[in-house]
Predict the 3D structure of the following.
Amino acid sequence: MLNLKSQIRGHKAQITKIEDAIERGRLPHAMLFTGPESIGKKMVAYAVAQKLLCEGLKDMPDSPCGICPSCIRVAKHQSENILFIEPAGQNIKVDQAREIIQFLNLSNFGRNRAIIIDQAHLFNPQAANSILKILEEPNQNVYFILIAPEAESMMRTVRSRSQVIRFHPLTEAEIKSIIPGLSEWVYKCSRGQLNAVAQLSSPEGMTKRIQSFDLLESFWTEADFLNSTGWRNFFKDREEAQDIIKNWILVMRDVLVLKLNELTSVLNSDQMDRLHKFIFLDNARINRFISGLLKMQKDLLGYADSTMSVESLWVMHARK
C-alpha cells in the first residue's frame, strides 16, 4: 500500500489541521508551508495531494487508500493531476509560470488538481506577478501548495493570499526512526534536518566538520590569521562557506551551554576537549560573534564576498 501519510514522521498537528479542513470542505486554495529545509514539507504536500485525489476516499474517509490508481500515481510522482515546480537554476522563471497556466487550462472533468511549488521564495518578479493573478482568482478544485523557508521571504501580495502553515524541525526520536544507528552527536547537530544527518554522517562531512573546528581555533588564537592563506581556500565556495559558518554558530552555542554546565545540552558532545579551548571568551563577546555570524549567513544569500566577510568578522571580534 502506497499511503504517503503513513511514511511521514512528525508534523501531526499540521496534518490534522489540513485534513480537518478537507473533511469540512474548507481547504484554502493556496497554502504556504514554511520551516527549515529537509524536514518533510514536500512529503506532506504530496500526502495532501494524495488525499485530495484519492479515488477510494468514499470507502476510507480517514485517509488516502494508498491502493487506487490515483494514489499509486501520486506516490510515484506520476499523477497527471499534480504539477511540481522547482527553481530552474537560481530562480523560478516566467516560463515555469506559463507552465502552471497551461496546466490550469487543461480540462480535468471536475477532478481536484494540485500545484506544488518548492522554494517558492525564489520566484523572479515576472513569474511571481503571473502567479499572483492566478491566486487572486483561483480555479475551482485547484490547490496550490507553496513551500518556502519562512513566510517573510515571500512577496507580501502572494503571502497574503495564502494560508501559512508553519512546520518545525523533527525531533531526535523522529530522525532516529528514519535513520537509525548513528552517533548521538550526529542527531543533535542535525537540528532536526534530514539532509544535515546525511551530511554530518558522511566521511566528507565528518572531515569538513573537523576542519571547521580547526579554522575557528585559528580564527581566535592566531594573531596573524588574516595574513595566512590556508583559510581562504575554505571560503572561496559560497556553499562551503555557509556550512562552515553554520558549524561555527553551533560551536559558539555549545560554549555558552558548557559555561552553564548543561553538559547534556551540548550538541558537539564528541568534541568536548575542543569546546573547552574557547572557554576564555566571555559571554558578551560570544553573543556578539554569533550575531555577526548570523548576519554573514544572510549576506551570503545575496552577493557578499565570503572571504571579505570573514576578514571583517576577524577585525571586529578577534583582533587583539
